[in-house]
Every structure is written in C-alpha cells, then in structure tokens.
Amino acid sequence: MDRRAEFKRWKAQCLSKADFSRKGCVDEDVVEIVQLLNGREQFFTTSSCAGRIILLEQGMDSLEVQKQNCCWLLVSHKPCVKDDVIVALKKANGDAILKFEPLVLHVQCRQLQDAQILAVRSTHGLEVPLSHKGKLMVTEEYIDFLLKIANHKMEENKKRIERFYNCLQLALEKETTTTNSHPKEKIKEKNNSYKKKSNPGKAHDKCVTEENDKVLENDDDDDPGISVTIFPEDY
C-alpha cells in the first residue's frame, strides 16, 4: 500500500472513533477549523480545544502542575465570574491552581511540507496558585482581578482563532491554486523537499506569523513519513 493510501486509511480509522474528551465533542469556536482541516486529504485532527479557564487541585506533595494526576474543580470554555471559582475552591483539600489555556490543535499531516503551515505557537496562557493544603492564599479581590485577566485572554484567544481560520483558509486556497496551475513544479518541489528547506512566500508567511502569532517550522531531520505529528508549543 502506498503512502497516500495508507494515510487515507489511517485518517478514516481515526475520525471514525468515538470522542473520548471530557466534553465529548468539538468546541464550537474551533468547529470550522477542524472541518476545514479534515476536509483536506493531507490533514486530519487528532484533538483540539478552543481555550478554557480551569481550576485544578493537585496533591500537596507535588511541585509541578500535572493535569493527569489532578482533580478538575472547574472547567469553562466561556468567561468566568468570581463566585464560580470561590465555590469550586471550597472543594479543594490540596493545592489549587487557576489556569487559562489558549487554543490547542493537534494535527496529523501526510508529509513534512504539509506540516509547515500548521506549526502553531502561542504564549498567552496563565497559571496562578490560589490555595495551599486547602487554605486560600489570596484574597477574593485578587481572584476577581485574575479572572478579569483570564477572561480578557479568553476573548483575545477567540479573536486569534478567527484570524487563524481566515489565514489558514487563504493559505490552503493558495496552495490548491498553485498546485493546479503548476503541477510539474509542485511535483519537483515534493521530490526536493527533504534535501532543501522550503521557503514559503512572503505574503503567506506574513499572514500566518504576523497576523496570527503562528510560526512556520521545518526540520530536515524529521521523518517525512505519515507518522509526523505537529503539536502547538507553549500550551
């Protein structure tokens, strides 16, 4: 079975599986992005999150926040109010941490050059400890202040998602037009993609990096096979 057929089979198998996320479905704010990527033969999404405000409780002896071993006291994909957090904090017996996590998008790509336009980087997260051994270490006024910051980041995150979708759509349309207009050049580019780093056009690069804080990445040492997975950094 050739690589293209193998990727197609793998994509169909993965997309047919049940959604085992906590929510059980794709977040509303990233539905269009997920549909856009899954509608292209060279991509499929493996997981996503539009962004969320969470309150985690970790063990009292743990020095690092590890969500796998934490109790989720509060999860919201919408702006939060202080009372929501105060009520959730009453359930904590260990160390409670308030976090804001921006867009997370995991995408499987058929080949390395496809992955270049989907390497996402974002740095507008938030992580603040609120209690220790069940004791609140900050004032309610400070919690209210933190939530204003988190809610602002949530709104900014939504705007970035919209800009990312528009630029991704433009980039994919441009790629399709280029492929249809210059099929021979495209084939030649694919054959040489592992010998020399590609140089995306300035307009495309500006759209993805400057407008959306997204970064195009390439690594000559990466395996160009279908096992290449692009994960966003700094989430």
TrEMBL record:
The answer to whether keyword Transferase applies is yes
Q: Residue ranges under compositional bias (Basic and acidic residues)?
A: 178-192, 202-217
Does this UniProt record's set of keywords contain Methyltransferase? Answer: yes
Q: Which reaction does it catalyse?
A: 4-demethyl-7-[(3S)-3-amino-3-carboxypropyl]wyosine(37) in tRNA(Phe) + S-adenosyl-L-methionine = 7-[(3S)-3-amino-3-carboxypropyl]wyosine(37) in tRNA(Phe) + S-adenosyl-L-homocysteine + H(+)
* Biochemical pathway: tRNA modification; wybutosine-tRNA(Phe) biosynthesis
Its GO biological process annotations read:
methylation; tRNA processing
User: Superkingdom of the source?
Assistant: Eukaryota
Alphabetized, the UniProt keywords read:
Methyltransferase, S-adenosyl-L-methionine, Transferase, tRNA processing
Principal EC category: transferase
Give the tRNA wybutosine-synthesizing protein domain ranges.
10-118
User: What Gene3D superfamilies does the entry give?
Assistant: tRNA wybutosine-synthesizing-like (3.30.1960.10)
Q: Where is this region: Disordered?
A: 178-235
List the SUPFAM superfamilies hit by this protein, alphabetically. SSo0622-like
Q: What is its EC number?
A: 2.1.1.282
Recall the GO molecular function terms of this protein's record: methyltransferase activity
Q: Which Pfam families match?
A: TYW3
- UniProt family annotation: Belongs to the TYW3 family.
Role summary: Probable S-adenosyl-L-methionine-dependent methyltransferase that acts as a component of the wybutosine biosynthesis pathway. Wybutosine is a hyper modified guanosine with a tricyclic base found at the 3'-position adjacent to the anticodon of eukaryotic phenylalanine tRNA.
Task: Provide the protein name.
Answer: tRNA wybutosine-synthesizing protein 3 homolog
Please name the source species. Sus scrofa
Gene expressing this chain: TYW3
